[in-house]
Fold these 2 entries.
Entry 1:
Amino acid sequence: MTTATPEQPADVVARLRATFRTGRTKPVEWRTTQLRRLRDLLKEKGDDLAAALHTDLGKSSTESYRTEIDFTVREIDHTLDHLADWLRPEPAPVPAHLGADATARTQYDPLGVVLVIAPWNYPAQLLLAPLVGALASGDAVVVKPSELAPATSAALARLLPAYLDTDAVAVVEGGIPETTALLAEKFDHIFYTGNGAVGRIVLRAAAEHLTPVTLELGGKSPAFVDSTADLQVVADRLARGKFLNAGQTCVAPDYVLTDPATAAALEPLLASAVEKTYGADPQRSGEYGRIVNERHFDRLTGLLGSGRVVVGGVSDRADKYIAPTVLADVDPASPVMGEEIFGPILPIVTVDGLDEALAFINDRDKPLALYVFSESAETRDRIAAETSSGGLGYGLPLAHLTVSDLPFGGVGESGMGNYHGRYSIETFSHRKAILDKPLG
Ligand code: NAD
């Protein structure tokens, strides 16, 4: 169940598998009861989670409710509203050679015992939203919170067993040794959110057992801006999307790609958007988060030397604070453009137009998200047609992942598979093909 018990990963998995074999998790009633209990947890103990998130990441309560707690409640409500519909067997046409009395359909079967490994940046949402999908699919679930968000991990380990069926849902806390031990076990699906290096470890471990995986990874998500856009609106939305959770958001705009004239016009607007959102001194704003730990703080401050500082550029290690920072005249070969930033630094890189922007994007790994700020239908259409990314957002960063009826996931280096809403049922179930030919 939790690390409070000496139960080993192998025993946890065996215990959950025994429960799954009894068929207890399969009825829709069990699934909806678990979802309602999870909803009760979020309603009754949301403040406990918000406090933990504040401890781990300096998130304000408003931000925690918006991006983690209420986000998950919405995912639960959407699932409860539609689950019966999603699970309904789908008839399929039968070819003539099987006779007129034959029928065919698909049916969703739970997979069995699944593992959800969560990261630290949205440590509640990114553990609980996959859990919603797994419970809705009738699976038994082991969840592994991130050790880098220890307060949230402890809160989840305390709260989940108090609300959910502990014979079918287990929390295993810990870091690399515990995760490695879990990965040695046979699961029926592994759902991992985090970086690509560990994604490869997960995929290798899964291969041993022929276990299917979903990898929700990251990467550098570009924001393309052209001169047709209302740059005031662009600056406001970019600043909000980028600096939420101090930039530690997998779908945050990583960098701005624009032409030199638009860049020059955008710079002061981004500076004023930061001030409008977080005040003259963001360190004193209750709404601005902190960097998760010193290692990431040091990595990020090492990236501040690229380009020219438009706004921000200051930091305070004792407070794990890095100011919302915009860098202009950034060389594509500079360190800040060499890796996913995953922090509050927004470089502006200039290109001489759409063709060069498309080449720039397509020369790099397929991003998790791509944002386009343009009033030109032709530009928007060309970017949709000529690039590949996990998601595409016109005019508003981050928001596509709040649409429960859209699949959320990456492609190529940004991941494989997807979830949210009915796509979670696809991920955590097996769609079984059934042919029925009467014997008579
Ligand atoms: P992290 O360090 O918390 O790691 C994620 C999980 O992997 C943790 O549970 C951790 O215990 C486990 N882990 C770490 N090292 C391991 C190892 N050697 N073997 C087995 N398990 C191990 O999180 P992170 O990777 O730093 O997260 C940041 C990355 O995640 C960024 O690249 C970001 O873009 C990506 N991300 C993607 C999404 C998405 O939905 N696609 C969401 C959030 C974050």
Note: Residues 117-121, 126, 144, 146-148, 175-176, 179-180, 193-195, 198, 201, 216-218, 250, 340, 342, 368, 410, 415 surround nicotinamide-adenine-dinucleotide (CB under 6 Å).
Entry 2:
Amino acid sequence: MTQKITIIKGDGIGPEIMDATIKILDQMDLDFEYDFKDAGLEALEKHGDLLPQDTLDAIKANKICLKGPLTTPVGKGFSSINVALRRHFNLFANVRPVVTFEGTKSMYENIDILTIRENTEGAYLSEGQTINADRTIAESKIVVTREASENIVRYAFEIAKKAGRKKVTAVHKANIMKTTSGLFLEVAQEMAKEYPEIEFNTLIVDNTCMQLVMNPSQFDVIVTTNLFGDIISDLCAGLVGGLGMAPGANIGSDVAMFEAVHGSAPDIAGMKIANPTALILAAAMMIEHLGYVAEANRIRLAIRKTLLDKDRLTGDLGGSAYTADFTDAVISRL
Ligand code: NAI
Ligand code: MG
């Protein structure tokens, strides 16, 4: 049966890296139909709405979405479209793997870390962010619920079990944020008891950052709340050659949305030099999610081989190749 996929090309470098990614998916002989929809600045210009209802309807109907980065205009009263999408479809788990690819600027060998970030609450609420009239006091609300914490911790342990991973680390700041981070930690400790076969430890977030830089190989699966997960996953991307290398999945019980961890990179948009790897790897996660494990691994292997070729590396990896050069090289190695 034809699988319909909602495609949002996105802003900035989005269309460039999405075109590269679709070119690769088209090589895979999968029965996909692309349903192109707008969101972000592009949608604001065309339809007067950052997140048109038509786009939401398509995601809901197709259940699978591949999405380029979206620019949220700052200081114009818009709340983040990414956060809105995640909350609208209750995409509770943000799954962000990083692995070392030989040939990139990675400082370490053999990194294989999976960050599982709570994606719907924590410090990322659009409501409850206030500032007084003379702009001297700003406040925001952090909400952690037992239900969302249980969902994300269970997801982390289940994925660890399925993937044969050995260890789960719950990252928190319960020593200071006693109620919010404290509740998350309490839930993680309780649920770890249900998975005695998987090693479990807890680590305070600031120490985690230091440990990730000093000795990343001690980490396997990291599970944490929204803000810490956002920061830690960018740090992890830095361990394997930068944001151009890091894919992510937003998983809900009904809908799943796949994207790169990075943003729209306005500084290089339109120059055709963006590294499409993160979005291509996100597409690999998507087809794996749809059951095409061998095909996903074929894409990953072709990327692995291409990254060994210095002449094909994009600027962020120290090379001077164009997006299309890299993409064609991946296709030739599929
Ligand atoms: P960014 O990730 O767009 O860029 C940070 C730096 O990394 C820039 O120097 C950029 O050129 C470089 N970079 C990122 N991806 C790259 C790639 N594929 N190839 C080569 N170089 C790459 O982060 P920034 O500048 O903080 O955000 C820009 C915009 O993106 C903002 O409007 C932000 O809201 C949005 N954003 C959207 C996200 C999403 O849609 N999921 C995630 C993060 C940011
Ligand atoms: Mg981020």
Note: The chain has two domains: 1-96+248-334, 107-239.
